[in-house]
Design goal:
The complex is a heterodimer. By secondary structure, chain A is an alpha/beta fold. Chain A contains eleven helices and ten strands. Chain A has a domain at 6-85 and 210-320: 3-Layer(aba) Sandwich (Rossmann fold). The model of chain A has no long low-confidence stretch (mean pLDDT 89). Chain B has a single domain (2-216), classed as 3-Layer(aba) Sandwich (Rossmann fold), CATH 3.40.50. In chain B, the strands form two sheets. Chain B has a five-stranded parallel sheet with strand order 6-7-8-3-9, sandwiched between helices. A four-stranded antiparallel sheet of chain B has the order 2-1-4-5, with helices on one face. Chain B is globular and about 50 Å long. Chain B starts with a strand and ends in a 7-residue tail after the last helix. The model of chain B is unreliable at 219-223 (pLDDT under 50). Classes of the chains: A alpha/beta, B alpha/beta. Chains A and B meet through helix 7 and helix 10 of A and helix 6, helix 7 and helix 8 of B.
């Protein structure tokens, strides 16, 4: 953890979906983490573990049948307690810039990139008058390295990488202190993934922004992240430095270790079993049925201590001696 | 042998996206085809899967030249190939329960009496539990749906598997599990594999050999 003051502070965030027939889906449970200026926090986990729901909760974009509890502060503002008016006028675009999962689908198909940028510039900045808006939009495109020759193209005329840059340009317009990237690299090829995360990193390295990147792409996370938060079955089970997570000592939670070992340049072996249903979680540790270290102690929920929620975490070599 | 010789293919008479591509797989061999997005590798995979008729060039499947594509291909050739696509959501009928999704090729070829016996073996092999088999696609995750799509590709016991970016949408653990399931099937049946993708680390680990798009085709002309 750095000594910098956090931009985003999440404490005890939980999200429940109420389903027909009284079923409750525990999508996110008791999440705690911070993200500081100049820092990239990667939130990783298998698909369906609640990562994107967490992002929606921060933006106040949960569907009507969801209930959020806990606190998520940016400055003095509690995002979870804010009303729709505050979220619309002060949060989305201004405090949190969203870089969506599939940018080409996120852009309006019948409008050009320039039209998107000019609308966003008018809504979020003080630029007024055609010439001022036009030049501000061009400046915004340049900040995300979007080529000015492509500004008059429609979303379907853009390649995946270009659409990604257009979306990033839009997210940067409001100069928000927190960038929220939801699976920004899914479906892109490896060169484009590296290029995309390097550009995201560049926007964080100005020192004024924090980046929360939600991803299941561990290689992308390794390239960009300062810290890593691992989510399993709706809970953040481990928060640690990226260096130790991807380095020689490795992560400490058995689930994190299993995820890393599934990579093709490591053991390439899957974690046995499948993730539990979020509507039917066991009382204790949700990972216990798939865990080789599980014992009777695991029928009780492990409290998060020292950034890790596990009864039997791996102990680094130097501590064991 | 699966041989693609001098294939040129495109869409609606426009500029070809694949030009003069040549690729040969020995029986039981696994070959990884690497290329950046948009290079035409998926089109070539569709040609190899008899799903897209090339403009010119020949495909030879186990010594027999291919003369028809899609529904014009003889059943004996169509059923020798299993294919898994990149996006499970787009390649699964949203109305079918996973059981029916997997059993569809058996129904289509008049072998419905084998459904029960074949599914009982396949479902655990791809990591699907009985309660998942009863659900429809919107009730399962991408990873679970892709497991069903793999089972559908294996249900007719094809001699050749074509996996077009099978794991691109999946997390590391699910990807490793699916690759493991493919390799178990190949070890048991000796089937050949054409795996198309952009991740050289994955394909190097998975396949006997890998080739790069530029090495099998003369030019890729994209405006």
């Amino acid at each position: 953890m750095t000594g910098r003051t956090p931009i985003l502070t999440v404490r005890g965030l939980s999200v429940r979906f109420l389903m027909p027939g009284g079923r409750r889906i525990a999508a996110v449970t008791d999440a705690h983490f911070d993200a500081a200026a100049g820092e990239c926090l990667a939130l990783i986990g298998e698909s369906g573990c609640g990562k994107s729901v967490l992002a929606s909760a921060l933006l106040g974009l949960l569907p009507a049948n969801a209930q959020a509890a806990g606190e998520a502060h940016i400055g003095d503002l509690d995002l979870l307690a804010a009303d729709e008016r505050t979220l619309a006028r002060a949060v989305r675009g201004r405090l949190i810039g969203l870089i969506p999962q599939s940018p080409a689908a996120h852009l309006t198909p019948v409008r050009t990139v320039r039209s998107h940028l000019e609308e966003t510039v008018t809504a979020l900045t003080g630029a007024r008058g055609r010439a001022a808006v036009r030049s501000a939009a061009e400046a915004a495109a340049e900040r995300a390295a979007f080529p000015s020759g492509h500004l008059d193209r429609f979303p379907h005329e853009l390649s995946g990488g270009m659409a990604q840059r257009a979306a990033t340009a839009l997210a940067l317009v409001g100069d928000a202190p927190l960038l929220l990237a939801d699976e920004p690299t899914t479906g892109l090829d490896r060169d484009l993934v590296e290029h995309t995360v390097d550009e995201l990193r560049r926007h964080v390295d100005t020192g004024r922004r924090a980046l929360l990147m939600i991803t299941h792409d561990l290689a992308a996370a390794e390239r960009i992240a300062d810290r890593v938060a691992v989510m399993y079955a709706g809970r953040v089970v481990e928060v640690t430095d990226a260096e130790s997570f991807f380095g020689a000592s490795g992560p400490r939670h058995p689930y994190s270790r299993g995820l890393l070992q599934a990579l093709p340049d490591r053991a390439f072996s899957p974690i046995p079993g499948t993730p539990p249903e979020l509507g039917d979680l066991p009382a204790g540790c949700a990972f216990a049925p798939r865990c080789e270290r599980a014992t009777d102690a695991c029928t009780v929920l492990p409290p998060p201590t020292d950034g890790i929620a596990c009864h039997h975490p791996h102990v680094p070599e130097d501590l064991r001696a | 042998m699966l041989e693609l010789h001098d294939i040129t293919a495109g869409y609606d008479g426009g500029t070809p996206v694949v030009r003069n591509a040549t690729l040969t797989l020995a029986a039981g061999e696994s070959l990884g085809l690497l290329g950046p997005s948009g290079c035409g590798k998926s089109t070539l995979a569709r040609v190899a899967a008899l799903l897209h008729r090339p403009d010119t060039g020949t495909v030879t499947l186990d010594g027999e030249p291919v003369r028809g594509w899609r529904y014009r291909a003889p059943r004996v050739q169509r059923t020798a190939l299993g294919i898994v696509f990149q996006q499970p959501r787009l390649s699964a009928d949203p109305r079918l329960r996973l059981t029916d999704l997997i059993a569809e090729p058996l129904r289509a070829t008049g072998r419905r009496d084998e459904i029960r016996q074949r599914l009982s073996g396949l479902a655990p092999a791809v990591g699907l539990t009985p309660d998942l088999l009863d659900r429809r696609p919107h009730e399962v995750s991408d990873g679970q749906l892709q497991r069903a799509c793999l089972a559908r590709a294996l249900v007719l016991r094809p001699r050749w598997l074509i996996c077009d970016e099978m794991t691109a949408m999946l997390d590391a653990s699910t990807a490793a599990a699916l690759v493991g399931a493919v390799e178990e099937y190949r070890a048991a049946t000796g089937a050949g594999l054409l795996a198309v993708g952009h991740d050289h680390r994955l394909l190097d680990r998975w396949c006997d050999r890998t080739v790069h798009w530029n090495d099998i085709t003369t030019a890729e002309v994209r405006a």
